[in-house]
Amino acid sequence: MPKRNIFVVLVMIAVAAVSWLLRDRVGLGSRFAEVMGRIEGSYLEPVDREQLFAAAMEGVFSRLDEHSAFVAGERRDRLESLLDGEFGGVGLELAASGPDREIIVESPVLGGPAWHAGIAAGDVIRAIDGGSTRRMPLDEATRLLRGRPGTPVTLSIARGSKAADGSPVRDVVVDDGAAGVVTDSVTDIVVTREIVQVESVLGDRRRPDGTWDWEVEGEPGVAYVRIAAFGERTAAELGRVLADIEKRAQVAAGGGDGGVRGLVLDLRGNTGGLLSSAVEVCDLFLDEGVIVSTRGRADRDAAGDAADADVAADATPRDVRRATRGSVLATAPMAVLVDGLTASAAEVVAACLQDHGRARVVGSRSFGKGTVQTVTPLSDGSGLVKLTTAEYLRPSRENIHRRGDDDAAATWGVSPDRGCAITPTGRQLEAVAAWRRGRDVVPPKNAPAAAASAEPASHATLPPQVDPVLAAAIDALGLRH
User: Is 46 within a domain?
Assistant: First the structure.
């Protein structure tokens, strides 16, 4: 392009930018600044500019959908931790119990600082840095335990008599490197915060060393994998897990082909995460084909302007994600478990594997959250704008998202395959959740060898006997041993 033309283009861009700024000076931006100025200058009481701005953002985003928001402060930290799958803290899963809402350790994170310090399931946290936790909200306890890596926090621990599932808690020896002072049956333990990586891929039960057993207990050759959320490392974690499952199955089969009779992928309770992670997970199981399409406002407007809706749907431009060559456990039949809490990225995975015939979907209809949120930081770093910018379409081009006026007859979410629908009762769900928590508990680091090798009481009942949805999945694939 001639230099003269380049100069003309640059001048046009500059003029357009100045024109936009001048327009905004007499537009909504000017009005907003005028209102803020009057409040700050004339309101009876002093006002906090940040609080006013936060209130204004709440009002703006309340006019949008429930998934769009301005995210700042602790909410921003929680969102970033969820997407990154890591945070600065001590690595504890907590619960509140009893009339005083005592803070109880459900499980330490394997390899985390609390686990290394000897804190175990069933321990009661009586104080954090000297402040009593009596009737303290869980969110507040979590906030106090998290912090910058390398900083210490003192936990006053009373040894619990029972774990989260009701089984006895083993005696624990605190590491020599941890500071401990026993006073009136309460031990003060100083734990140094670290970057804690949260597992997003879970198995059927913990082994004595805390690692996962990926086989359904009592069902030889049936692999069981749970994905808790779709974060940045989920696909890589799952890839390693599937390779381990395949290797162990080949060893069990004496080195021959096969060994994996089937795979159950559990997405119940998975509320989503990163779309890119869901795409990568689907790609592990497929050789080719569309995984998911996304359609933004411009695409919907173009389709709406077309006279023939069917032609418009075919012609509408979309961001299409496709599978690449290579798949794992290609010959093993597969089932995906879903429920009413399975949403967003988890629905993308279930819909994709169902549409391609790679897996049967078992359980109850999913939530129906099929929109994409784009998260961008403000230029000054003070917060994040989380904005709904697109919607998902499954490979069949059917809609996933449930709108406010959609009823049960409308097309949304992911429904179980024919003959695979099962909705447990509330009592069954409570029993499964309590039983599962017991199997997920990380054993204490310094538990006596005899105690560590003993089978926990929660393992006495086999999974299909407790979990009706899992039992239905094994039945549906003809995998009952």
Answer: no
Please indicate, yes or no, if residue 77 is contained in any of the structural domains: no
Do the Cβ atoms of 350 and 291 come closer than 8 Å?
A: no
User: 412 and 270, same structural domain?
Assistant: yes
- Residue 405 corresponds to which amino acid? D
> Are 212 and 191 in the same domain?
no
DSSP-derived secondary structure letter, 460: G
Q: From its phi and psi, is residue 4 left (phi > 0), alpha (psi between -120 and 50) or beta?
A: alpha
Does residue 447 register a pLDDT over 80?
A: no
Is there a single domain that holds both residue 343 and residue 315?
yes
* Residue 481 confidence (pLDDT) above 80: no
Residue 145 clears pLDDT 60, i.e. is over it = yes
Q: What are the structure tokens assigned to 195, written together?
A: 């970057």
Identity at 214, one-letter amino acid code = W
Burial pattern 349-377, b for ≥16 Cβ within 10 A else e, equals bbbbbbbbebbbbbbbbbbbbbbbbeeee
Enumerate the H helices of 253-366 as residue ranges.
275-285, 297-305, 309-315, 345-355
Tokens of 102: 């005592």
Give rounded-to-5 percent helix, strand, coil for the chain. 35, 25, 40
Q: What is the pTM of this model?
A: 0.81
Q: Which domain holds residue 103?
A: 86-197
pLDDT number for residue 265: 98
Return d(Cα 103, Cα 144) in angstroms, integer: 12
| Amino acid (1-letter code) at residue 287 | D
- DSSP, residue by residue, 9-46: HHHHHHHHHHHHHHHHHTSHHHHHHHHHHHHHHH-SS-
First to last CA, the chain: 72
Strand bridging mode 262-266 / 222-227: parallel
User: 329 is written with which tokens?
Assistant: 């456990």
Same domain, 398 and 250: yes
The alpha carbon dihedral of 191, 142, 185, 208 has a sign of negative
Query: Do 252 and 260 contact (CB within 8 A), yes or no?
Result: no
CA distance 400 to 351: 8
Q: Which sequence positions are flagged as catalytic? A: 344, 355, 369
Task: Check whether residue 162 and residue 242 sit in a common domain.
Answer: no
